[in-house]
Design brief:
Number of strands: 0
Distance between the termini: 34 Å
Structural class: mainly alpha
Order of helices and strands: HHHHHHHHHHHHHHHHHHHH
């Protein structure tokens, strides 16, 4: 497992532990909903441009048209890092201004109206995002051990700063103060790293190059990553903060699926970049995805069977309804372990992927609003699972009809269909209460 994957697992584990502690504390479900809404808003206004700017920095680092230097010396100071920091800071300021100007719009949603500390959330947006550069400085400087150490330290401090005030009896507003405090400490850590590794040379030319390369990635991140935020917006429009908390506790994919699927997809991209190696690459992704299916499908089926028990004992009986949302999100594995987008991105046909993502958003909003009237919170989750699969199916069909790449050339069809059938059967048995584990 790479250091960056380990760092991401540390981040996920920290947020999970915070959720568990809050669920077992004296906080009401509504108070927990206010905290979850705060994180949701902060992430919704920033996730796409943070991802786009960070991803575009990686190929530009020490290999760009502005500085025209390709260096293998990991100890050399980099003007790219300094200018990337300035861009992240500028986008953070713009996001902060956006929140201030449109704060009244947030209160149009049912769940947000009772949040009394929105200004603190906006401050968190302003100072938290530049800190995402830290782990990538360690990545670019080839210092995996330092990245893991940083992750252990910073997330341990975050866990303490966010939960201790609540456990001491202070209102949930102090948890947001804790997030602001750890973000400030990360900025100090980042300043020390920049002093050591960055050359402080302001370059409008590099920023223009960075934005030019990053803008398609920002748009792609906005399109592909919007599903969870669309779900959250729909929930806040129909329900109060307590229901939002129940939904957010359940609307969690199994992190192992995301990490391993994304890792395989990213690792395969260079192989598809060479047109002469398409056939070996297709066979390779087929074999490697089959190995993932043998691991991740059985784990997902076990979680389906015991989700209700896990939620009641891990959180509290009040969050038993969250398990109903969670088991629907487990169905997303049927789309996550298909990799038609990897082929298209590797062949630089990113517009096709962006088009499919746009269709996904439109379908997701329409189907969620339709199903929420019949199935409540679970209807929104069900719409996401259906639309994610439809998006992958569209890309599979594009590969087949336009690129003449047959699905069974890169999908282990028998394994995939067998596991998917078993997963859906177990899901239906659990959903209809034919199988129960309490």
């Amino acid at each position: 497992m790479g250091s960056l994957q380990a760092f991401q697992i540390l981040r996920f584990t920290t947020f999970l532990l915070i959720s568990v502690i809050f669920a077992r504390s004296s906080l009401s479900v509504a108070d927990i909903g206010y905290y979850e809404l705060s994180l949701f808003i902060a992430s919704a206004v920033s996730f796409f441009w943070v991802n786009g700017l960070i991803q575009s920095l990686l190929p530009l680092y020490n290999s760009n048209n502005t500085f025209r230097v390709v260096s293998l010396n990991k100890k050399s100071k980099s003007p790219e890092l300094y200018n990337a920091f300035l861009l992240l800071s500028a986008f953070s300021f713009l996001a902060f201004i956006f929140c201030i100007l449109f704060q009244r719009a947030f209160h149009l949603f049912e769940g947000v109206r009772d949040v009394t500390f929105m200004n603190l959330v906006f401050v968190y947006v302003l100072i938290s995002n530049p800190g995402h550069l830290i782990e990538y400085i360690y990545l670019l400087k080839n210092r995996p051990a330092d990245m893991v150490i940083y992750g252990v330290v910073t997330f341990a401090v975050q866990l303490a700063m966010v939960t201790l005030p609540v456990l001491a009896g202070y209102p949930v507003e102090y948890a947001i103060w804790g997030l602001i405090a750890i973000s400030a400490l990360r900025l100090l850590w980042l300043a020390a790293l920049l002093k050591r590794h960055a050359r402080f040379r302001f370059s409008p030319g590099f920023m223009k190059e960075h934005i030019s390369l990053g803008m398609p990635l920002i748009i792609s991140s906005l399109l592909s990553g919007s599903a969870q935020y669309v779900d959250g917006v729909i929930i806040t429009a129909f329900y109060d903060s307590a229901s939002f908390a129940i939904f957010r506790f359940g609307a969690k994919e199994m992190p192992l699926v995301i990490l391993m699927a994304n890792g395989l997809s990213n690792a395969m991209l260079p192989e598809f970049a060479d047109p002469g190696r398409i056939r070996p690459a297709l066979l390779n992704i087929k074999k490697r995805s089959a190995r993932l299916m043998h691991i991740l499908f059985p784990v997902s089926i076990i979680l389906l069977l015991f989700s209700k028990v896990i939620y009641i004992n891990l959180f509290s009986p009040e969050f038993s309804r969250s398990a109903d949302v969670f088991i629907v999100y487990l169905l997303l594995i049927t789309s996550r372990l298909l990799f038609p987008q990897t082929i298209l991105i590797g062949l630089k046909k990113t517009r096709v992927v962006m088009g499919a993502s746009l269709v996904e958003i439109i379908l997701n909003v329409s189907l969620s609003i339709f199903l929420i009237r019949y199935y409540g919170l679970v209807g929104v989750a069900l719409a996401t699972a259906i639309v994610f699969f439809v998006e992958k199916l569209v890309l599979v069909l594009y590969n087949y009809f336009r690129l003449k790449i047959k699905p069974w050339e890169y999908i282990p069809a028998g394994i995939y269909l067998g596991y998917s059938f078993l997963l859906i059967v177990v899901f239906l048995l659990v959903d209809m209460r034919i199988i129960r584990f309490h």
